[in-house]
Amino acid sequence: MSAPEIAEMWMTDESHVRKVIHDFNQHGFVSPRPRFRGGRPRRISNDDQVRIVAVAGARPDTHGVPLTRWSLTKLSEHLRGEGIAVSAAHLARILAEAGLSFQRTRSWKASPDPDYEARAARVLELYRRQPQGGVVISFDEMGPVSLCPHHGRSRLGRALPIARRNSPRDRVRR
After folding, report:
1. Sign of dihedral through CA atoms 86, 92, 96, 99?
2. What is the pTM of this model?
3. d(Cα 116, Cα 168) in Å, to the nearest integer?
4. Going by DSSP bridges, is the β-strand pair 149-157/100-108 parallel, antiparallel, or unpaired?
Protein backbone atom coordinates (compact mmCIF):
# COMPACT_ATOMS: atom_id res chain seq x y z
CA MET A 1 0.00 0.00 0.00
CA SER A 2 1.12 3.55 -0.58
CA ALA A 3 1.59 6.08 2.20
CA PRO A 4 -1.62 8.00 1.31
CA GLU A 5 -3.67 4.76 1.39
CA ILE A 6 -2.22 3.77 4.79
CA ALA A 7 -2.83 7.28 6.14
CA GLU A 8 -6.45 7.16 4.98
CA MET A 9 -6.95 3.70 6.49
CA TRP A 10 -5.51 4.75 9.91
CA MET A 11 -6.96 8.26 9.70
CA THR A 12 -3.62 9.97 10.19
CA ASP A 13 -1.28 12.26 8.32
CA GLU A 14 0.77 11.01 5.34
CA SER A 15 3.96 12.55 6.74
CA HIS A 16 3.53 10.51 9.94
CA VAL A 17 3.11 7.30 7.91
CA ARG A 18 6.26 8.09 5.92
CA LYS A 19 8.15 8.76 9.16
CA VAL A 20 7.06 5.39 10.61
CA ILE A 21 8.06 3.57 7.41
CA HIS A 22 11.43 5.33 7.40
CA ASP A 23 12.03 4.45 11.08
CA PHE A 24 11.11 0.83 10.40
CA ASN A 25 13.51 0.65 7.46
CA GLN A 26 16.27 2.15 9.62
CA HIS A 27 15.71 0.39 12.99
CA GLY A 28 13.65 -2.71 12.22
CA PHE A 29 11.06 -4.12 14.63
CA VAL A 30 12.22 -1.90 17.50
CA SER A 31 10.79 1.19 15.79
CA PRO A 32 7.04 0.53 16.39
CA ARG A 33 7.67 0.81 20.16
CA PRO A 34 9.95 3.83 20.53
CA ARG A 35 11.53 4.42 23.94
CA PHE A 36 10.98 8.16 24.10
CA ARG A 37 8.83 9.67 26.78
CA GLY A 38 8.35 13.06 28.31
CA GLY A 39 11.19 14.76 30.15
CA ARG A 40 14.78 15.30 29.24
CA PRO A 41 16.42 13.27 26.45
CA ARG A 42 18.01 9.94 27.31
CA ARG A 43 21.73 10.02 28.03
CA ILE A 44 22.26 6.29 27.51
CA SER A 45 21.37 4.92 24.09
CA ASN A 46 20.31 1.36 23.28
CA ASP A 47 23.80 0.66 21.94
CA ASP A 48 25.27 1.87 25.25
CA GLN A 49 22.93 -0.44 27.15
CA VAL A 50 24.03 -3.41 25.04
CA ARG A 51 27.65 -2.48 25.74
CA ILE A 52 26.96 -2.16 29.50
CA VAL A 53 25.36 -5.61 29.66
CA ALA A 54 28.24 -7.13 27.68
CA VAL A 55 30.87 -5.61 29.98
CA ALA A 56 28.94 -6.59 33.13
CA GLY A 57 28.64 -10.18 31.93
CA ALA A 58 32.38 -10.54 31.37
CA ARG A 59 35.11 -10.87 33.98
CA PRO A 60 36.85 -7.59 34.83
CA ASP A 61 40.32 -9.00 34.16
CA THR A 62 39.35 -9.55 30.50
CA HIS A 63 38.88 -5.74 30.29
CA GLY A 64 42.20 -4.96 31.94
CA VAL A 65 40.74 -4.29 35.41
CA PRO A 66 42.61 -6.19 38.17
CA LEU A 67 39.47 -7.66 39.79
CA THR A 68 37.72 -11.01 39.62
CA ARG A 69 34.16 -9.70 40.03
CA TRP A 70 32.43 -6.39 39.27
CA SER A 71 30.78 -4.24 41.88
CA LEU A 72 28.32 -1.60 40.72
CA THR A 73 30.68 1.26 41.62
CA LYS A 74 33.72 -0.37 39.97
CA LEU A 75 31.69 -1.14 36.85
CA SER A 76 30.39 2.43 36.79
CA GLU A 77 33.95 3.82 37.07
CA HIS A 78 35.18 1.51 34.30
CA LEU A 79 32.32 2.50 31.98
CA ARG A 80 32.95 6.18 32.70
CA GLY A 81 36.51 5.63 31.42
CA GLU A 82 35.02 4.16 28.23
CA GLY A 83 32.79 7.22 27.72
CA ILE A 84 29.53 5.89 29.20
CA ALA A 85 28.59 7.98 32.25
CA VAL A 86 26.10 6.00 34.34
CA SER A 87 25.43 5.99 38.08
CA ALA A 88 25.53 2.79 40.12
CA ALA A 89 21.78 3.01 40.79
CA HIS A 90 20.90 3.39 37.10
CA LEU A 91 23.40 0.65 36.29
CA ALA A 92 21.51 -1.68 38.64
CA ARG A 93 18.24 -0.90 36.81
CA ILE A 94 19.80 -1.55 33.40
CA LEU A 95 21.26 -4.86 34.52
CA ALA A 96 17.97 -5.91 36.15
CA GLU A 97 16.14 -5.22 32.87
CA ALA A 98 18.67 -7.46 31.12
CA GLY A 99 18.00 -10.28 33.59
CA LEU A 100 21.25 -9.99 35.54
CA SER A 101 21.05 -10.14 39.32
CA PHE A 102 23.52 -9.60 42.12
CA GLN A 103 24.81 -12.94 43.41
CA ARG A 104 27.18 -13.76 46.23
CA THR A 105 30.27 -15.81 45.52
CA ARG A 106 32.45 -17.59 48.01
CA SER A 107 36.22 -17.60 47.94
CA TRP A 108 38.97 -18.42 50.39
CA LYS A 109 41.98 -16.39 51.34
CA ALA A 110 45.41 -17.97 51.03
CA SER A 111 48.80 -16.89 52.23
CA PRO A 112 51.35 -15.70 49.65
CA ASP A 113 54.15 -17.05 51.91
CA PRO A 114 56.02 -19.89 50.12
CA ASP A 115 56.77 -21.53 53.51
CA TYR A 116 53.17 -21.27 54.71
CA GLU A 117 52.40 -25.00 54.55
CA ALA A 118 55.46 -25.98 56.62
CA ARG A 119 54.82 -23.27 59.23
CA ALA A 120 51.11 -24.08 59.49
CA ALA A 121 51.90 -27.79 59.89
CA ARG A 122 54.41 -27.01 62.67
CA VAL A 123 51.89 -24.84 64.58
CA LEU A 124 49.09 -27.39 64.17
CA GLU A 125 51.40 -30.17 65.38
CA LEU A 126 52.16 -28.12 68.51
CA TYR A 127 48.43 -27.83 69.17
CA ARG A 128 47.92 -31.58 68.66
CA ARG A 129 50.90 -32.64 70.79
CA GLN A 130 51.69 -30.08 73.45
CA PRO A 131 55.21 -30.19 74.91
CA GLN A 132 55.54 -31.91 78.31
CA GLY A 133 54.62 -29.33 80.96
CA GLY A 134 54.44 -26.54 78.38
CA VAL A 135 51.81 -24.23 77.01
CA VAL A 136 51.40 -23.39 73.34
CA ILE A 137 50.66 -19.76 72.52
CA SER A 138 50.67 -18.50 68.95
CA PHE A 139 50.23 -14.99 67.62
CA ASP A 140 49.17 -13.91 64.19
CA GLU A 141 49.00 -10.43 62.72
CA MET A 142 45.80 -11.05 60.79
CA GLY A 143 44.01 -13.89 62.52
CA PRO A 144 42.87 -17.09 60.83
CA VAL A 145 43.14 -16.43 57.13
CA SER A 146 43.69 -19.80 55.52
CA LEU A 147 40.20 -21.34 55.62
CA CYS A 148 38.04 -18.31 56.36
CA PRO A 149 35.33 -18.00 53.69
CA HIS A 150 34.96 -14.50 52.29
CA HIS A 151 31.71 -13.65 50.52
CA GLY A 152 31.94 -11.52 47.40
CA ARG A 153 29.42 -10.35 44.83
CA SER A 154 29.04 -10.77 41.09
CA ARG A 155 26.46 -10.47 38.31
CA LEU A 156 24.89 -13.72 37.13
CA GLY A 157 21.68 -14.73 35.44
CA ARG A 158 18.60 -14.32 37.62
CA ALA A 159 17.76 -17.47 39.60
CA LEU A 160 14.48 -18.62 41.07
CA PRO A 161 13.51 -16.90 44.33
CA ILE A 162 14.19 -18.75 47.55
CA ALA A 163 11.05 -19.69 49.46
CA ARG A 164 11.12 -18.52 53.08
CA ARG A 165 8.79 -19.95 55.66
CA ASN A 166 7.80 -18.30 58.90
CA SER A 167 9.97 -15.29 58.27
CA PRO A 168 9.54 -12.36 60.70
CA ARG A 169 8.58 -10.23 57.69
CA ASP A 170 5.77 -12.64 56.81
CA ARG A 171 4.10 -12.35 60.20
CA VAL A 172 1.41 -9.73 60.54
CA ARG A 173 0.95 -7.93 63.84
CA ARG A 174 -2.59 -7.28 64.96
Report:
1. positive
2. 0.44
3. 45
4. antiparallel
